[in-house]
Amino acid sequence: MSKIVTPAIERQMKINKRRPVGYIASPFKEAWRRLARNKTAVAGLIVIAIFIIVAIIAPWITKYDPTAQDYSCTLQPPSAEHIFGTDNYGRDIFSRIVYGARVSLPIGLLCAICSLVTGGVIGIVAAYFGGLFEDIIMRLCDIIQAIPPMLLAIAVLAALGNGIDKMIIANTIALIPLYARISRAAIYTVKENDYIEAGRAIGAGNLRLMFKHMLPNALGPIIVTTTFGVAGCILVVSSLSYLGLGITAPTPEWGSMLSNAREFLTSAPYYIIIPGVMIMITVFAINLFGDGLRDALDPRLK
Amino acid sequence: MEDYILRTENLRTYFSVPAGYLHAVDNVSIKIKRGTTLGVVGESGCGKSTLGRTVLHLTPVTGGKVWYNDRDISKLKKREIHELRREMQMIFQDPYSSLNPRMDITALIGEPMDIYHLHSNKKEREEHVKELMDLVGLAPRFARSYPHELDGGRRQRIGIARALSLDPSFIVCDEPVSALDVSIQAQILNILMDIQEQKKLTYMFITHDLSVVRHISDEICVMYLGRIVEQCEAKELFRTPLHPYTQALLAAIPSPDLDKKGELQIIKGEVTSPVNPPKCCRFASRCPFAAEKCHNEEPSLRDVGDSHLCACFKVQGEI
Fold this sequence. Notes:
By secondary structure, chain A is mainly alpha-helical. Chain A contains 12 helices and no strands. Chain A has helices at 7-18, 27-36, 39-56, 58-61, 93-129, 131-146, 149-160, 164-191, 194-201, 206-242, 254-260, 269-296. Chain B has helices at residues 48-55, 78-84, 105-115, 122-135, 152-164, 182-199, 210-216, 234-239, 244-251, 292-296; strands at 4-17, 20-28, 31-33, 37-41, 63-68, 71-72, 88-91, 170-174, 202-207, 219-224, 227-233, 302-303, 309-310. Chain A binds chain B through residues 12, 15-16, 19, 21-25, 193-195, 197-205, 208, 213, 216-217, 297-300, and chain B through 56, 58, 82, 85-86, 89-90, 92-94, 97-102, 104, 106, 111-112, 115-116, 126, 140-141, 143-146, 148-149, 159, 162-163, 165-166.
């Protein structure tokens, strides 16, 4: 008798082949396998990787010192000599972009990660315990959010002094309420599910319920916010640099290049387009990767 | 003396709602003999699930007492509740929503073992999970599947295996087959009964399905609006239902017999609100036999012969 094979059985057979009996795949390996199959996410990851590698090997791929001024060739359009052109001090824009990646990327990523972790934990704990505790935390967040993030960052920088590390702290504090809010809302959507109750019935403690049962099922909106957060951080940092806070003048940084270039918008448009496009590509790549990551972490989407 | 694994005395669970207190479980006293199944039946919202959850400390006790193995468990510290969960487990109603979609079967069944540190090494744990899967009839090839890849029956088997993984002696089954196809219901019920025999388990079986409860229960109690109105042996209840509510429930069971075209006795009226219920028989407003006394006084659950308990003035011969 021949076996009847329906598409459903075929699918199960495929899954079984991939996951033979006794085979233990770590959840990370499984997620990675799903991520690797998502072409756009891989593209995003590759772009991010290229940017990081370029930032690391900056001295070997640039001809010019990013801070060396050359008044004989200011505001030159892209050419063979200067492939991205030069700025108003005659500095090579390509060098500045490459070196700028060393500043912009870590700042963007660090701010987003720091505020994600602290804000996320605050939001999850608040949503989980609820009651007065939640009210107090959320009102504190309201107070912080009532102040424009830029002003808050300036105030924190004024109190702590200038510097890249302090800038990351200032940015993180300004962004914590956003992440607290998002993760609180995300936890609320999964909090009342039966499997949380079921977890409680098998004796799961608060931490296990929060981080093993609720968080993984609430990751979607949190990851998406984070990917946008990286971009936001790069832009806030650049605005602060423009005000002379945080990163000081000669240090190449994408945001400050963008603000410097505003005066030359009509005479030398490439000057503002290039750092702008760089920020855009970074943000885009991180968003693609974030989307892919969200899907990869969900075993229901195959 | 009878060997009761679980007893409750005047157990109450109230929920605070804007209009007052919702009496979900009101003065419920039950006794479950070791190794037997107590069926709890009643319509939706009568408090049968809340009763099960209160016994397991998933919902806080408002008043009254619960004894487990003659130990008062109505007021326990967090630690003690945690320890108690090893003994008392629950099987949930909806196998589609009661399993974390991010965990595969091995993780789901093995999780209780991790929480209670049952095994010191991975291999032992793996073996234990395999054993449980075998016990509930899940093929080993599903070990790495996720709940969404399986049908309802298999998912409910995971739920059962999970409840069994700590080797408990008492399990609250909260409508474990209501969400399943009729064809699968029987399989799951048979598994539950086989395991009960094998492991000498005691079940509290909550359901609204009378044909299911008849199949599995040794004793049945009928709940109406947070109170028990009738309790007796399963056979006795189906042979001689005493309370008007029980009679109406049994009359409403669809019969496959085509010649038996009797009139369907439909309970008239609406369920009285469980929020701040008046002090009277809670079924009085819908009862065809209600007398004045039923509207003024509350009948208590009394033995009316042959350990058949009933809370009705008419049956007790007072009206």
